[in-house]
Write the structure tokens for this entry.
Amino acid sequence: MRGACRCGQVNYQVKSQPLYSGYCHCHACQKRNSAPCVSLFLIQKSQIDISGNTATYHGKGGSGKDLIEHRCDSCGDALYSDITVLDNVIVCLASTLDDPADFKPEGHLWVSSRDPRFDINDDLEQQAGPPMQMMPYLAK
């Protein structure tokens, strides 16, 4: 899988299958992206090559733990985040993929904070909080 920002200054190539792919409904994602949810995938840092310059913003993720957001320092597109609650894992926004068909969602996260005006009309798994599949990657 490959992806980039709109201006093409920041590019990435994913070298393996994501650890998890889905839709996040947490308040942090809603505010960061001005949307009721975002499509994302989680990947080990060693399994993605990123080139280009990013600007960072330090905030909190849905877990309340530190989150470092990376945006293209030219066009401003959000691309990925370092989430300190997980060890050596980053979250990439699937909207930056070159081929949207590469995004294969497994479920919905943080549905406990879902925008009540947004209906979920698919059969994907729904989790009230973070993806339980990521428990082995919790930072020590």
